[in-house]
Structure formats: structure tokens, C-alpha cells
Amino acid sequence: MDPALATRFLNYLAVEKGVAANTLDAYRRDLARYLRMVDRPGPDHIRRDDIQDFLSRMADEGISARSAARCLTTVRGFHRFLQLDGLSMIDPTIAIETPRGWKRLPKTLSSDEVESLLNQPDRSTPQGLRDTAMLEVLYATGLRVSELTGLRLRDVNLERAFLLVLGKGSKERVVPFGEVAARSLQGYLSGARSLLLKGAESDALFVSSRRRQITRQMFWVRLRHYVRKAGIQKQVSPHTLRHSFATHLLDNGADLRSVQAMLGHADISTTQIYTQVSRERLRQLHEKYHPRG
Question: Mapped to the 3 state alphabet, what secondary structure does the chain carry?
Fold first, then answer.
């Protein structure tokens, strides 16, 4: 198949749909794999069996069902684009089922583990105050790490306790935060941030001692450091705090739609995975404490 068709699709996503750069890269990788595995002269030569074979070959190569499902979503979008743009007469992905089993329960921290982690930074230093604010905001809002590190000063409203967040697909959403996160932010902004900047100017909310915006990689390093200090044996990433945020909200009675809005999920089915986490925890508690568990 002509690679130029894939290029047209990617340009469409970037220009007309405003797809974020990271998401666009994922689409590009998925399409490259698809075009490599499904070697046909044109889109109208591809049949349903070719798509099924493509999924089977990914499974044979050890590609996870989750990655296969995401790849199929890319391929569906590609063929629908070709059809709507008059570049193809058929959509071979119709009636193809999405690979199941990819919705693994996300790993979370307990409330005690979160508390221990948040207490690790040294609040007597500018870096510690910054790290405290970043961890508190991450757990209080469930932001993606790219959203956290991309925050600007103008995105924070301390008086009303909310953030204006630029999420996937350049979609803005308003996310509230609580008193603890507000105090941590205030403590950081009242002096630590200016000490880190050393007279330089920046519109980034979270900055390093090199007077630059904190990157995702830098935050990962700081998080791993505090996980080790807290003695937490689990593998913890910034997304673990996002998962914990959602799960703890639902455990304490929050409604699914509100959690969906705060997380910035376009589809509520993505948010529903956290209800399974809550049910799994209840099952484990029943087995542990019920006399006939």
C-alpha cells in the first residue's frame, strides 16, 4: 500500500483533529507496523481476513492485547478516513472485535502508602518544597505527568483552588484541588520558586535549580527517590498516583462522571476500570476477613 496514504491520515489528525504530538507518534508507529505486516497493493485489496491475520501475527510476536487493541483503533481510524475521503470503497475493519483482556487492573497505592510518599520531601529546602507541591498536586488532581510538568503560573487559581489543564488533543479542563495541595502550592510559590529561578524569569509553574521547567524525566527521578525513601516495594510511576487518585475518590463515594471529567477521559468506559479496582479490593477484604471467605 502507498505510504503516502498513511501520511495523509497523520496530517489530517495533526491539522484538523489537533491530535497531541505523543499520540500522533503512537499512531505513526501503529500504521508502520500495519503497513509492514499487511502487504497489499491498495486499501481496497484488504479484506477482513487480512485484519484478523494481522491481529493473530501480533499475538504470535508477543505483543500485548492492550497494544493490539490500540493498534486496531488506529487501523480503524485509518480505513474510515480513506473511505470518507474517497480514497477507498470499503472498510475491512467492520465487525472486527477488539482484542479482550487488555484492561488490566491498574496498580494503585493504599492511602497509607500515599501518605508516606508525600511526607518524604525535605520541606526545609526549595527543592523539597517544590517536590512536595508536585506530589500533592498530582495526587489531588490525578493529572498526567505531562500535564503536571506543563503547568504555567497562569493555570493556577489558588483563591478558588482549581487548575486549568491542557490535556490530550489540546482539550482544556478545569480540575479542582483541596486544601493540602493549596497549602503546598502556596508554600512553594511564596519563596522556593524564586530561589530556584535565582532572578531568572519563567512562566512555568514548576522549575528546577537550573532555572528551567521541570521535565517529565526529572520528575520521574525525584519520584523514584521518594518511593525508595518511603520503603514502598511496589513499582511506582506518576501514573500510579493518577490511578490512586481515581480509585480513592470512587472508594469514598465520588460519582463516575465527576471522576471522568477530572481525569479528562473522553470515554467513560476508560474510567470504569477503576470501579473494577474497588470491587476487587472488596473481594479481597471479604476473602481475608469473612469466616467462610
Answer: CCHHHHHHHHHHHHHCCCCCHHHHHHHHHHHHHHHHHCCCCCHHHCCHHHHHHHHHHHHHCCCCHHHHHHHHHHHHHHHHHHHHCCCCCCCCCCCCCCCCCCCCCCCCCCHHHHHHHHCCCCCCCHHHHHHHHHHHHHHHHCCCHHHHHCCEHHHEECCCCEEEEECHHHCEEEEECCHHHHHHHHHHHHHHHHHHHCCCCCCECCECCCCCECCHHHHHHHHHHHHHHHCCCCCCCHHHHHHHHHHHHHHCCCCHHHHHHHHCCCCHHHHCHHHHHHHHHHHHHHHHHCCCC
